[in-house]
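[STRUCTURE TOKENS]
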Amino acid sequence: MTQRTFTATTEEMPDGGHVGNLAPFACVEMVPRENISYETTHQVESGLANSSFRLLTLKVFNPMVTRGHLVHGIVYLNVKNAIKVNNIVLKVLGSVQKSIGRKNVKQTISIGNGFTKYAVSSIHSTICRSPDTYNATIDDFNGPDVLERLGVMTNPLPTSEYEKEFKGPIQLLPGTHAIPFAIRIALNMPPSLTFHRSHKLHRGKAQQKTVLVAEVDFQPEGSAPVSITVGMLPITIQSCENLPCLINGIFGPGDAHLIPIESTDTDVLILLEKKHYTLTDMVRIYVYASERNVVEHAFAELVKATRFTELGLYDADCLIDSIKSRGMELIKRTKKQKLDCNFPKTFTSTISETYPIGTLRKLNSSIPKIDDERLMPVEDRAAGTLIMLKIKHRHEPSINAGSIGISYHVRVHLKISGRNKIINWAIPITLNDQLSEDYRIS
């Protein structure tokens, strides 16, 4: 993979005209200069493709992207002789690569974790760009402010004109042609990740990788259609999840569970400040009881579960099995805390200290609101406590990719007065590279 960008020069045609004046998408010739982005170039060497192209280049402006956000890029076609481009198909492909001891095993993720999108399509959709209204120039995609002008940093979620496909087929004359695109990373794509695990005498390494490929279907004059592929361009996908909803202008809880205590008239309400966390975050757990002196104390554990089938690690029953189960790892356990009848009865979020409400964009309206006061009214909360669990060491983000997976849950333990057995309640959470107030969840 080469890394470079381009500046514009003038390429004279045999009839004295310039490429930019002859056809839609026609651009002036490209000359390499100092790199500010990622690209891969395919130099055509044989066959009909060699008589049609000098170079095919796939270029991406932001190769690190969050799921649900846009990757902006461009396909450059350096054409020798006139051709008709029927389709340009962009393919985002995910794969899992594993090594077990000295043995390397490669496994491709199911098709559900990959997807395709057309930059040019002869199978017309209802939403297309018109080639007659667009004439690309290399200067449009150069310069230190290119990401800002494309809206990559400031406007990642709303639709972009570059998401629409061009209506094919497209006639391209000799010269350099630039076809820009924007492709939204699917929400079900696993994040890019490398992790190591060991079990008994075996050690293993797993990598989740994602690449972008462009497939160009074209037809030289007087010849049959031909297909050529350029790409395998690495894309780093970051995980992201949403913040809790606002209720009456303040953050509500991220998750809530009401637990009836058997053989008593007591209910216990467990509130998590967030359902989703960053990799170095604070987990805040509120525990309320509807009667005094029924719950002696409470403590919490943060548990990681790994699925790595070749090592015999499984996470299928991670919310039920004990910590000693294969694939389970205890990250941290808090001290026992007594429930206090003087503890504040109203849930109070601290999220706004990190994400000031006045600076947020519009919150994701699809997130269900959690009304903790409906589950247990404030006046019914006889005692409570706050358990804080710091994620001190950086851990891998949550991932679910076929035969590999990493999941997390908080397990809250309740000691009931007069009973030897402790009640425990497991609550799934996620760890992510980042959180966003308007992140769209599937």
Remarks:
- Helices lie at 47-52, 146-150, 372-375.
- DSSP finds three helices and 33 strands in the chain.
